[in-house]
Each structure stands twice: as C-alpha cells, then as structure tokens.
C-alpha cells in the first residue's frame, strides 16, 4: 500500500530517476534486514520429516511429475491459472490503461494502487478468514470467479474513471480470494513434505503468465481496445464458474 503511494508522490515531485534510486536503496535495506533477522531454519526437523528426507533421491522433474499425476493437484493448478490469467493481464497493463485511457497522473495512480493494495490486504487478512467460518473453500472459489466475472463486465462498460476504479477494486477482491483458495486446496492434496514444491509450481505458473501477459494484452489493447479485455475476462471467469458448479454437482 505504501509503495505506490510514496512512489507516485516522489515521481511527481522529483522525477523517475529519484524514484528508481529510492527503490534501489529500499531494496538493499530489505536484503540486509532479511539476512539479519530471518532464521536459517523456520521449522524443526521431527522424526517423520527426517524419515521423509531419506527418500529424496528423486530428481526434481520426477517429483514434479508425481505431483501433477495427482488429479486434485492438476485440477487446482489449471483452475488457478484460468481464474487468475485475466486479472494478471489487466495488472500487466494497469499503468498504460490508467494513464493513456483514463489520464490518471503519477500521484493519482499511486493513490489508486494504494487503494487496490488496501482492498487486497483487507480481503486476505480479514475477509477470507471470516468467510471460511461459514463457507467451504470450493464455494469461495466459485464466489471468487463470479466476483471477477462481474468486475470484467463492469470494465467492459467502463467509460469513466470512477467505474473503471470500481471494477478494479472488485477484481482484486475476486483475484485475492481465488488465488488463496486454489493454493490452499492444492496444498491439502499433497503431503507436508511436498508443499514447498507445489507452492513453487504455483509461483512458476503465475510468473509465466506475468511474462506472457504484457505481449498478449498490448496486442489486444492496440487492435481491439479496452473493451476486449473486459469481454475476454468475463467469458473466462463465467466459464470457470460454470465448470466449477458442474464439478460441485458431481
């Protein structure tokens, strides 16, 4: 939350070079802080873990294949990729859309991103915990893709800054819930010893999507306009909702 807010202010007052220099200094401080305070071992090695560690002769590719052979894991990874891809597409093009389509300046863009960060923090810090007391993870996943679908519909019709901002706030709520639920459901399908590898697979798939998103998004934006992103996102999210609802009935 603080990053976009401070970044927008510094960029507006002192320019891009000062912002980049400040970011490099803060990055160095974060590295030093991690080296000083993060413990080398975050978990104690009990007898069960010690026994499991003796069976680590498999290569990383073999372990990955074994994980993907578990239907629940593969299903959740595909569901995560499909549900998060449209939002990642928008995130990759966020600055371009903000400044070119809605003429949002650096300071206002910082405030906008800070608000998005605050909404995400509230959902992940408080909202999900409260919802899990009343609903299952699978139900929340369906809710998340429906929320994201509604956000993309709103973005499709967005012609003013306010409606666009509202769509992005709604989208980040759906995105946060979907990512948390898919990751949680996938990790529950594997042993504790394989949790790290599974989280790595989740992060890798998201990183791959973030690598491809700028190129795909720019092409769509230039040739079909902003509405095409809203149409694509709503189609994918509502399609995912139908698939998940069908699976829930089985």
UniProtKB/TrEMBL annotation:
Listed transmembrane segments: 20-38, 73-97, 109-131, 138-158, 225-246
Q: Which UniProt keywords apply?
A: Membrane, Transmembrane, Transmembrane helix
Q: Which GO terms describe its molecular function?
A: transmembrane transporter activity
Keyword Transmembrane listed? The answer is: yes
Name the GO cellular-component terms. membrane; nuclear envelope
Q: What is its main location?
A: membrane
Q: What organism is the protein native to?
A: Pocillopora damicornis (Cauliflower coral)
Q: Which Gene3D superfamilies match?
A: MFS general substrate transporter like domains (1.20.1250.20)
Record's keyword annotation contains Transmembrane = yes
Domain Major facilitator superfamily (MFS) profile: start-end pairs: 1-250
Subcellular location as annotated: Membrane
Know the name of this protein?
Major facilitator superfamily (MFS) profile domain-containing protein
């Amino acid at each position: 939350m603080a990053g976009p807010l401070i970044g927008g202010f510094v960029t507006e007052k002192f320019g891009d070079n000062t912002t980049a220099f400040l970011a490099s200094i803060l990055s160095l401080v974060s590295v030093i802080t991690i080296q000083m305070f993060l413990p080398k071992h975050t978990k104690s090695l009990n007898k069960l873990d010690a026994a499991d560690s003796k069976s680590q002769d498999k290569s990383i590719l073999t372990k990955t294949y074994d994980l993907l052979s578990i239907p629940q894991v593969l299903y959740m990874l595909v569901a995560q990729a499909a549900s998060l891809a449209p939002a990642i597409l928008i995130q990759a093009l966020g600055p371009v859309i903000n400044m070119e389509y809605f003429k949002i300046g650096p300071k206002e863009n910082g405030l906008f991103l800070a608000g998005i960060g605050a909404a995400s923090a509230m959902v992940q810090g408080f909202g999900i915990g409260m919802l899990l007391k009343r609903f299952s993870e699978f139900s929340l996943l369906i809710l998340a893709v429906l929320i994201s679908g509604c956000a993309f519909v709103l973005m499709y019709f967005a012609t003013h800054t306010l409606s666009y901002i509202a769509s992005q706030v709604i989208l980040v709520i759906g995105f946060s819930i979907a990512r948390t639920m898919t990751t949680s459901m996938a990790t529950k399908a594997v042993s504790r010893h394989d949790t790290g590898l599974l989280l790595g697979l989740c992060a890798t798939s998201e990183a791959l999507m973030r690598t491809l998103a700028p190129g795909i998004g720019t092409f769509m934006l230039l040739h079909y306009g902003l509405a095409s992103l809203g149409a694509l996102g709503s189609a994918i999210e509502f399609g995912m909702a139908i698939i998940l609802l069908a699976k829930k009935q089985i």
